[in-house]
Amino acid sequence: MSIEPELLAILACPQCKGKLVYLKQAEPAALICRGCQLSFPVENDIPQLILTAATELSRAELEQLPS
């Protein structure tokens, strides 16, 4: 399973309201905000869009992610 495209189209970063990129192949799956450099975990196909659950990404980590 994965997050439905219709849901992904309306999800936004809770901090900056920017677009999120879904990395379903990552372990664990994640939604990435490139603007805030945050990674939000996706557990059992449920996005955890709370700032306390987010992990800050370095520039190097962001550059390694697919576009």
TrEMBL record:
One Gene Ontology cellular component term attached to this UniProt record is:
cytosol
Supply the InterPro entries for this chain: Trm112-like
Q: Which organism is it from?
A: Pseudidiomarina taiwanensis
Protein family: Belongs to the UPF0434 family.
| Superkingdom field | Bacteria
Q: Which Pfam families match?
A: Trm112p
- Protein name as catalogued: UPF0434 protein CWI83_01155
- Native organism taxonomy: Bacteria, Pseudomonadati, Pseudomonadota, Gammaproteobacteria, Alteromonadales
Gene3D superfamilies for the chain: 2.20.25.10
